[in-house]
Amino acid sequence: MLFDPWNPDFVASPYGAYDVLRREAPVSYYEPTGQWLIARHADVNALLRDRRLGRSYLHVATHEEFGRTPEPEFQEPFWRVIRAGMLDVEPPVHTRLRRLVSKAFTPRMVESLRPQVRAIARGLVDAYVDKGGGDLIAEVAEPLPVTVIAEMLGIPESDRHLLRPWSSDICGMYELNPTPEVQHTAVRAASEFSAYLSDLAAARRRAPGDDLISALTQVEELTEDELVGTCVLLLNAGHEATVNVTGNGWWALFRNPAELERLRHDRSLLPTAVEELMRWDTPLQMFERWVLEDIEVHGVRIPRGSEVALLFGSANRDPAVFADPDRLDVGRADNPHISFGAGIHFCLGAPLARIELIESFGALLDRSVTLELTEEPAWKPGYVIRGLRALELTATG
């Protein structure tokens, strides 16, 4: 099957197409999206670190100067929020924002959260197993990271049900050629999320608490838009990938029962298993970059103004880097997957995501004697952020 990101069969299993791309067309132009597809691990890894590319180009040129059509006016509220967060800006703004936020994600700070993460995970898993199972994604995978990041930021418990729908709607804009309906939904969600966070930040300025939003309101060099954009990014990135690694990961283990049994009998494999599950069925299949200066990849000239699509899912199955890459191996020791990215935009929350995943998988293995699929899961239609609609299981303790 050729690269076809709107085809449900491709979304369900893109890896055969990636094999062909890596062998025959490691750098290829994809007309439907106007992007250069980059399929091999070495190239993806190098371009993530190459400062001739950026997540944005607006720090060096206008849309018109870059040969691009400006976004339609109705999208302005969406991009005002997104471009105020660190993911979609470049140095020196990115450097300043990351420095401010990284203080909350030092290894010591993150490790101190482990007991809290473990307690939340076990509480969710206990409730799930006690009722005999259900949709693992809705009942365990989603609430765990949402609860953790919401508590870090200081989002009131009564409002947390709003976060996942807002995040999902916002992330729809990152899919390839989103429909007008998806675009308008993303704009609405960004506007509502922004207004909510502005009100919450105003309340924390008046009465600070022991939370990250309160701390950010005290930082004079942070603008209101940057505070809101940073919180939106932390909430979205703080759970979107973790949810999909959990769903995709358990589905991978059910399709590889021998590896599930290895994990059941040896919990010391949990750290390597989590890394392998992120590699084997990557939740973020594609990450895009703008070409700020002409580059050349495998003899192919990619001019300034182009957009490259770095195929994380393909890079993570590259046989030049991973022995027997299509085999799931929960004990794989040498695993330089790039699911968290690389370079200056490497995922700030990677250490926290790893703790959440280890505690979540561990709690389910510890608490359940049996976990069985009740029906084969279906994939969501999105390709860039790739995950299951639901994962219905029966569970007995």
Q: Which key phrases capture this entry?
A:
3-stranded antiparallel β-sheet; 5-stranded mixed β-sheet; 397 residues; 10% strand; globular; alpha+beta
Q: Taking Cα atoms only, what radius of gyration do you get, to the nearest Å?
A: 21 Å
Number of strands: 10
Question: How far apart are the termini?
Answer: 42 Å
Globular, elongated, flat, extended or rod-shaped: what is the shape? globular
Count of helix runs: 18
Largest sheet: 5 strands, mixed
Which SSEs are present, and which pair or pack?
Layout: H1 8-12, H2 15-24, E1 27-30, E2 35-38, H3 41-49, E3 53-54, H4 76-82, H5 93-102, H6 107-112, H7 114-130, E4 133-135, H8 136-141, H9 143-153, H10 163-171, H11 180-206, H12 212-217, H13 224-237, H14 240-255, H15 257-265, H16 270-280, E5 286-291, E6 295-297, E7 300-302, E8 307-311, H17 312-315, H18 350-367, E9 370-373, E10 392-396
Parallel strand pairs: 2-8
Antiparallel strand pairs: 1-2, 3-5, 4-10, 5-8, 6-7, 9-10
Helix pairs in contact: 4-11, 7-9, 7-18, 10-11, 11-13, 14-16, 14-18, 16-18
Protein architecture, described:
- The chain is α+β, with helices and mostly antiparallel strands and 397 residues long.
- The chain has helices at residues 8-12, 15-24, 41-49, 76-82, 93-102, 107-112, 114-130, 136-141, 143-153, 163-171, 180-206, 212-217, 224-237, 240-255, 257-265, 270-280, 312-315, 350-367; strands spanning 27-30, 35-38, 53-54, 133-135, 286-291, 295-297, 300-302, 307-311, 370-373, 392-396.
- Strand 1 and strand 2 form a beta hairpin.
- Helix 7 runs parallel beside helix 18.
- It is globular, with a radius of gyration of 21 Å.
- It starts with 7 loop residues before the first helix and ends with a strand.
- The model has no long low-confidence stretch (mean pLDDT 93).
